[in-house]
Amino acid sequence: MAELTNKELKKQEDFNEEIIPHLDALYNFGLRLTSDPNDAEDLVQDTIVKAYRFFSSYEKGTNAKAWLFRILKNSYINNYRKKSKKPQQVDYDEVSTFYETIRAERTDTSDLEDKMFRELIDDELSNALDNIPEDFRTVVLLCDVEDFTYEEIANMLDVPIGTIRSRLHRGRNLLKAELMDYAAKRGYAGD
Question: In the predicted model, what is the mean pLDDT of residues 97-122?
């Protein structure tokens, strides 16, 4: 086995320092896009492979998280939309094994999962988010949950800032409409 050169070692060190801290956020965003833990893991793995391969194009000290989210979103568009057009196939053995082992394999998560699932957010709320169209859901998640700026989101999604503002406004309104019944059931008065 050949030893790594100093340049390769430095690349690995820089990569670990800049990229690895964002894995949980990447996974949680991937999970919101795919709604499937296995697909989210595959998406993150694909993102990390691409990020490492093209790490030389990343400017150290810039917003690594935004760079990674853009790679993840592009990977999702390229890979998972194609998959979604195929009929869904389920292997019973895989499903039963997954549910038996998921608790044992669970890892610490970042703030996104905490916000989405642990702060009194139940299935209705999660479903409401899932029910808004993907373009709007993505912008709402990136802005309101991940705290990216409009400029960062526009860069990640390759759309003008005005489109981001429009999608965010419409996404929030769609989410609000989805949640009106939810709020009424819990005793919150509407406007």
Answer: 49
Q: Which fold has domain 120-191?
A: Arc Repressor Mutant, subunit A (1.10.10)
* CB-based contacts of 117, cutoff 8 Å, min separation 6: 126
Q: Which is more confidently placed, 178 or 107? A: 178
CA pseudo-torsion sign 123, 190, 186, 141:
positive
pLDDT score at 91: 56
DSSP string, 35-68: S-HHHHHHHHHHHHHHHHHTGGGS-TTS-HHHHH
How do residues 142-159 score in pLDDT, each as one tens digit? 888 888 899 888 888 888
Q: Which CATH number fits domain 8-108: 1.10.3720.10, 1.10.1740.10, 3.30.1490.20, 3.40.630.100?
A: 1.10.1740.10
Q: For 3, left (φ over 0), alpha (ψ -120 to 50), or beta?
A: beta
The per-residue pLDDT for 46 is 92
Q: Whole-angstrom Cα distance, residue 14 to residue 95?
A: 38
Q: Quick check: 57 pLDDT over 80?
A: yes
